[in-house]
Amino acid sequence: MHTVKTSHDNQVSTTVYGSRAAATGIPRFEMGEEEMDPRLAQRFIKDELLMNGLPALNLASFVTTYMEPECEQLMADALPINFIDVEEYPAMGEIEARSVAMIARLFHAPLDNPEAEACGVSTVGSSEAIILAVLTAKRRWKEKRMAAGKSTENPNIVMSAAVQVCWEKAARYLEVEEKYWFCSPGKYLADPQELVDLVDENTIMVVGILGTTYTGGYEPIKGIHDLLVEKNKKDNLDVTIHVDAASGGFVAPFVNPDLVWDFQLPLVASINTSGHKYGLTYAGVGWAFWRDKSYIPEHCVFTVNYLGSPQASLTLNFSKSGVQVVGQYYQLLRLGKSGYRAIMQNATATSDYLADEVAKMGDGKLFHIISAGHGESLPLVAWQIAEDKPYDEFAIAAHLRQRGWIVPAYTMAPHTEKMKLLRVVVREDFSRSRCETFVRDLKETVHYLENAPAEVQKHMSKTQAAGDEGSKHHPVNTSKKTAVHANEKHSLRGKHGKTHAVC
Ligand SMILES: *Cc1c(COP(=O)(O)O)cnc(C)c1O
Question: Which residue stretches does the UniProt record annotate as biased composition, category Basic residues (predicted)?
């Protein structure tokens, strides 16, 4: 065969797609022997990243997808900074302390004076914050039990089974038993009495969720608190509350300022929030707060040297980027309370508009809205098909995906897992105008599915019982990740087929 000689070796003038690498493919499993031109490496990776969905059209996630260019510049400048090097980069510690002070005051931390130091740390997300909170609560419980000469064998956490998966991890990693309150049809937020009834002398904390990932609802934390006060008194216990405010921490104070859920309640010992959700910072930052130092046993704190003076360190990692804390501080400074209020109120208004539009579809009979809305929940819309239809929520998600929209269809928390839901999270950048485009596409999707042949309706729907691995053929289950321990039996997913809503 005659082959045409190409000028592959002429490195200098080779174009990206005229290069040898473009013709032969790039290394996937073993590092290449040869270097690659930076232009080529950048281009090939860019091309690979095209397979990602568009963050702005990703209505599945709470995590921030928009920040101002001024802040992006600051964050890019902070890329070479290792956050943990407090001696070399003292400004990072300062910025963290200021952010902790501001957010802790937003959550009504009891502080002696306007300049008092608050008790909190930046984390990589709410997951790390929650693990730290469980760690300190477990140790505090253990020290008290040991002092009283009682068993420290069986610590437990009391919480709703609608918790985010990080709670299962925290419990498992730190060897604490999970005592669950389960949802039932129509009842998706923990019942205070039923939850508090699960508390015993081995309970290290009761969890209240400020914004569940399934319906965005706020658990009745004050109600839980008041019953726990009684229970503590009656049974001579000292059980405290942790509030998981991952997504609600920056919403409720601005949209629903009269809701009492935070350190205003004396038994609230710790709170976490995700700076990268409604804290409006790109992914990678969360915050953990404690009521005061007495809730952080010395045993959990390590001292690092900070400009010759000792600085307490409570974190699961050592080196990490300083980028996100800079980004968070920019938002706190730039937006102030009125900026956050405006954004959260807009998001709430947009989600109410979307809920109304969804409710009107199919002559007002097709869908049933499950999220509360009107500032009584996170700015999200969760809904289900109310009528008997030959297609399901998964079919709607799959068809919307063809138009670029990423909307998760999922099944409800354990014990209500037969119920299918669709959920749109309204983030800062999901403006009214973008929402109107989405409503148009949702109407078209419904029209398409109503008129599609029966085989198409069935093919696009997820017909297996909840908990089965999604059909390989279903249009939304196209990723082929290698499953490590895919058939786990230890988790809520393994036992109840819990699907964790994307967050
Ligand atoms: C997102 C979320 C988490 C986990 O937070 P990350 O910041 O992603 O680690 C925990 N709890 C709730 C209620 C959440 O919404």
Answer: 492-503
